[in-house]
Amino acid sequence: AGWERNPAGPGFNEIRDDSVPPGIRPLDYQANFEAFLDQKEEDKPFFFWYGASEPHRVYDPGIGERNGINPDSVFVPPFLPDTPTIRSDIADYLYEIQWFDRHLGDMINILRDRGELDNTVIVVTADNGMPFPYAKANVNEYGTHVPLAIYLPGMEAPGEIVGDLVSLIDLAPTFLDLAEIPRWDMSGRSLAYLFTPDTRRGPDEKRPYVLLGRERHTHARPDNLSYPVRAIRTADYLFVHNLAAERYPAGNPEADVEGDGTDDGKYLAMTDGYHDIDASPAKSWVLENKDSEPEYFDLAVGKRTPFQLFDIKKDPFCVKDLSRDFNTLRKQEELSALLDSLLLEQEDPRMLGDSEVFESYPRFAKMRKFPGFRESGQYNPEYKKD
């Protein structure tokens, strides 16, 4: 995109480990971390991003069970069918989480051995929900409620679970706050107040909501169109506004439009449609059983109503939409008005009549052979303004 360097800094990915199981990225994460520490100036502060590929797909089928994870013991969220195929897929997912955790533990031990652990803030989180149908690439609970664990030297209550609503946009102001660096106005809020009990804010000072949204995930529709969503999550409810409800939320159902469905080097393979869902045994099961168990198919790929409401405390899996329940109309109106006012305040183009700007933005990865615009790295001229 014209950057002369990665804004996150130079990568440390040179040390490989080709003995890893299939589906695992062949990198020695902790050895690369040590290489980073070896080259930094002594007694200088550092920032290191351990960006593991795991638990991203693909998974080696059955690797979880082969490594001691019993598929019969895994939890299957209600938006997925409870079948041996799904249980095995989840077990494989859990194995890759363990892979990530093990390497993180090794890195923490390296910091401890070097005497740096008590000088280091550690934040562990994820970029999206689990890569299963009706999770990743959705704004429901299993798409956006990701893990967040923070270690701060000298914490008074290690291991404590805090229920405040926070967002990953809070990390930047938190880092600046901890470094005692003055900061300009930001949408995020510093989380430093959470780390010691005596600085906890009262209930009236906690953030009463977080905002969620999505535009484009992959090239999953003709003309590279997005699936725009805005949502607000309170302690009790999730209110969702699907701004283009006429589109398919997980991508168009077309599989092979042109060619034989394979990755030909320039264009991505088009095998089973609904490309905003990662290819997986779980996805295949949902699509193959759409006639016999349509409820899972409809949740994952069916078109949605413009507005949705979920009671997060009673239904954290977001399987019961309350938007058509007469008893929730007042709550819907309240949350809809609040969401609109906040988006207007932030000058969201979707609220200001300039929504097509999102449709113009380039995708720098490979595209698929959908009809219409499909040029990687290029602006869609139909929507780009001069």
Short overview:
Helices cover 24% and strands 8% of the residues.
Structural class from helices and strands? alpha+beta
Shape: globular
Please count the beta strands (DSSP E, at least 2 residues each).
6
What are the segments in which pLDDT stays under 50 over at least 5 consecutive residues? none
- As laid out across the biggest beta sheet, the strand order is 3-4-5-6
Features:
386 residues
Describe what you observe in this structure.
24% of the residues lie in helices and 8% in strands. The chain is of the alpha+beta class and 386 residues long.
Please write out the topology:
Elements: H1 29-39, H2 63-66, H3 84-113, E1 122-125, H4 141-144, E2 148-151, H5 171-178, E3 210-214, E4 229-233, E5 237-242, H6 281-288, H7 294-301, E6 307-311, H8 329-345, H9 357-360
Antiparallel strand pairs: 1-2, 3-4, 4-5, 5-6
Helix pairs in contact: 1-3
